[in-house]
Design a protein that fits this description.
Largest sheet: 6 strands, parallel
Radius of gyration: 16 Å
Strand content: 15-25%
Structural class: alpha/beta
Number of strands: 8
Helix content: 40-55%
Distance between the termini: 18 Å
Shape: globular
């Protein structure tokens, strides 16, 4: 399975290393897209080492002049997973904004490939009516959400909903649904 893993600027970005590592060890090809904010928390070299692939950050970097990389990554993907997903990326996607590498790949893949979003943010941000409305809108459009943990201690010290789901749960959800899809296409 080809997985595009989007990593955004949540403090939980360090857990993306575990996600990339698990998916790679399970035999999947993982192409990581790291946002500018995400790169302030985890380095590209960590994700590159664990995924065994180049980490993409700049949609204007000429990688291969024979292809448009955000389109080719979307076409290659069996699934797009954004983990962690900030309120910012959720809002961008809900608003149809495609102004960075990750949001352009999501726009090119959505509707043709499953897109999983694993939110990670402060409880107040997660419960904000605007964020909740964006999540509701995206669910209605077929985006799949992997819910944050309930009653966890967040980076700010508050206990509440908003911490990234467990890495094992994220990997299991994505692998299970993709295996069901593959098995369904064989029958």
């Amino acid at each position: 399975m080809n997985v595009v893993l989007g990593v955004t600027g949540s403090i939980a970005a360090y857990k993306a290393a575990d996600i990339a590592n698990r998916l790679t060890k399970d035999g999947h090809n993982v192409d990581v897209i790291l946002t500018a904010s995400g790169s302030r928390i985890i380095t590209p070299i960590t994700l590159q080492t664990l995924s065994k692939n180049k980490v993409y950050m700049d949609m204007f970097e000429e990688i291969d002049h024979s292809e448009v990389k955000h389109i080719s990554l979307a076409d290659k993907a069996d699934v797009v997973l954004i983990a962690p997903a900030t309120a910012n990326i959720i809002g961008k996607i809900a608003g149809g904004i495609a102004d960075d590498f990750l949001s352009t790949v999501v726009m090119a893949a959505a509707g043709r490939r499953p897109v999983y979003i694993a939110p990670a943010m402060n409880t107040n941000m997660y419960e904000n009516p605007i964020v909740q409305e964006n999540i509701k809108k995206l669910r209605g459009l077929g985006y799949r959400f992997i819910e944050p943990k309930e009653d966890s201690r967040l980076a700010c010290g508050v206990v509440g909903k908003g911490a990234l789901a467990d890495v094992d749960d994220i990997v299991e959800v994505v692998e299970k649904e993709m295996m069901e899809k593959i098995e369904g296409s064989i029958e």
